[in-house]
Structures are given as structure tokens and as C-alpha cells.
Fold:
Amino acid sequence: MRLDKFVCKSTELTKSEAHHVIHCGLVRVNGEITTIESTQVHENNSIFLNDVRLNLRDFRYILMHKPAGTICSNIDEVYPSLFNFLTVDNPSELHIAGRLDADTTGLVLITDDGRWSFNITSPAQKCSKVYRVGLSRPITEDVAHRFKLGIALQGEEQLTRPAILDVISPKEVLLTITEGKFHQVKRMFAAVGNRVIRLHREAIGEVKLDVEVGQWRYLSRGEIAALTKEQP
Ligand code: URA
Structure:
């Protein structure tokens, strides 16, 4: 990792403050003053700022209940960012593991551990995501089978991976998928002649949504570990 990133992740300094202390010669890497912020460092290096040894903060793993009308971005755009609901230090270090559309509600995972979020978002890891879907028309009998075989979405070379459809009522279903193509759920139902009018994510792998809308909590060690495992 770059030295400036290491300084930010081990102190409360902003990026420009980190640059300042590095340029001023206040940072030593393995005993040498280092004034170049892009220097590559490793957490095993001994890195001191003003004679205080720096240690990286632990990774953070957060579950949030995304409200409708918010976006999965670190900054406000047309809609407010869901980070407005997250009261933690250094939110700019965090990213979202699997975005939802502005009108979609439900479970969002937020972290600064890129390797962990790859387990969740990479289709190769087959991490399941469960959506509760409200439909404009009654579901037809053939859809579960078609979703199991895979759907050809416009502009995609590969069929969607096998998905599981559980019918709750004619216009409400649960859909479990293991990938996250752009607008995937809406496009899958459009491909079978239906339209999604409500979309809510209830679970990712073994982690279930259990906080009220707009609320968040840290994941337990067990939940973090469950999402680290490669799926069979
Ligand atoms: N699929 C969609 O179409 N939208 C979402 O927000 C998530 C999955």
C-alpha cells in the first residue's frame, strides 16, 4: 500500500494532512525519513510519525438497511448517499460490497476490506443474494424453470446463472441469485414479460437483514467469517 494511505489508515489524518507530514520529513519507514507519499510500504514495515509507531486500524464490516431514494455511492449525487446514515469515522475509506439501485431497499454491506468484498461480488464465489420482489403482473408457471436454466439478458454474452424462485403470492416472489449484473433482477423479470415494482434485498449469504430502515450495525465475527468462505 502507498505510504500516504498507510498514514491515513493508521491515524485520524486526512489525505492532504498525510501528504503534509510526509513532505515535512516527519515520517520514517524502517528508520529512514521518507518524503515521497507514493512509496510502497507493507504493514510489517516499522513506520513512525514523530516517533510514534503507526499501526493499521482493523478492517470494518458493516450491515445497513438502505432506505429507498438513496444511492450506493460515497457522495451525494441526484439522490443522497446512504453514507449520510452512517455515523463512523473516515467514511471515505469504506466501499459498498454489491450496490443496489436508488429505488431498491434492504441489506447493504459496507467495508474497507477489498478482499472480503470480492468474495461477495465476484460471480465465481457464488455468494447468494435473496431479493423480495413485487411484480406488476401475476407470475406465470414457467418462470421458475426459465430462471433455473438461465436467462439471456440483452447485451450480455452469457446466460444468467441458475436462480431460485420461490412464489409467495401471485405478485410477490423471493428470488435468489449468485451474481450481480447491472439491474439484474429487473432485467430478468422484464425478459419474462413482467415488471418489478418493488425490490428489497433480504439476505447476502448467511447474513440476514435485522435492523430497521436507515439503521446499521457492525457484523459479528461469525458473519464476517461466513462471507469469507468460498461457496461449494
Ligand atoms: N437487481 C436490480 O435490478 N436492482 C437492484 O438494485 C439489485 C438487483
Q: What stands out?
A: The helical segments are 3-10, 15-23, 114-121, 143-149, 184-191, 221-226. Residues 65 and 214 are 5 Å apart (CA to CA).
